[in-house]
Amino acid sequence: MNVRATVRDHTLGTAAVLSAVALALVFAAALRVVPAGALPQAPAAVVDAIPHLNALICTVALVTVVLGVRAIREGNVERHRKLMGATFGLFAAFLVAYLYRVSLVGPTEFPATGLLETAYLAILGIHITLAIVCVPLVFYALLLAWSHPVSEIPQTNHRKVGKVAAPLWAISFALGVVVYLFVYVIA
Fold first, then answer.
1. 53 alpha-carbon distance from chain centroid
2. Which end of the chain is more exposed for a tag (fewer CB within 10 A), N or C?
3. Which tens digit of pLDDT belongs to each residue from 3-40?
4. Is the CB of residue 86 less than 8 Å from the CB of residue 67?
5. Where do transmembrane segments lie in this chain (predicted)?
6. How far apart are CA 172 and CA 167, in angstroms?
């Protein structure tokens, strides 16, 4: 049996396993389970540039999600597929860079207090919650699309899950940019 057929037969389980692994990596990085010395050391300028690069990645990913939704509403399945695939690639690049930086230097502390800090923490909390919720939804939707011929996708949960995943994913990307602005521009 080939991989695509196995995923097709076990899409929900595959999405659950991939989600668990991805979220475990995020929490392991945030809790600094892997010693920073065990990771390859990039120059400080590269590590310092990661938040700025990730803000750009989030901005581009937000655009690709919106354009992907628009494409499928217009019936352009191929464009939708390419844009959502690009969004996932951007998300993966963001995640690798984020996990690397957090593993090395830990989470970024917010430099302000008071009302500004309260607003920041509220937005950060929503962003993190949406990001966690999106992981299994996105994996499930993408795996359904990947493992089924286009003609069969309407008979799957892809559309139903995508209608939830896409806006949540877009909001998460947008709030990621807002978090960046709070830390690096506003505070």
1. 14
2. N
3. 999 999 999 999 999 999 999 988 888 888 888 888 99
4. no
5. 52-71, 83-100, 120-143, 164-186
6. 8
In one letter, which amino acid is 159? R
User: What is the C-alpha to C-alpha distance for residues 85 and 88, in angstroms, rounded to an integer?
Assistant: 5
What is the sign of the dihedral through the CA atoms of 125, 126, 129 and 131? negative
Show the beta-strand stretches assigned E in 134-182: none
Structure tokens of 178? 């807002």
What is the token pair recorded at 120?
A: 């920041």
Strands of 8-57 (E only): list them.
none
User: How far apart are alpha carbons 165 and 44 in whole angstroms?
Assistant: 35
Reduced to 3 states, what is the DSSP secondary structure of residue 19?
helix
Describe the crossing of helices 158-181 and 44-73 by its angle, rounded to 10 degrees: 140
CA distances from 139 to 22, 47, 95, 98, 135 (A): 10, 28, 14, 19, 6
> Which residues make Cβ contacts (< 8 Å) with residue 120, sequence separation at least 6?
110, 112, 179, 182, 183, 187
- Tell me the pTM: 0.92
Residue count (the chain)? 187
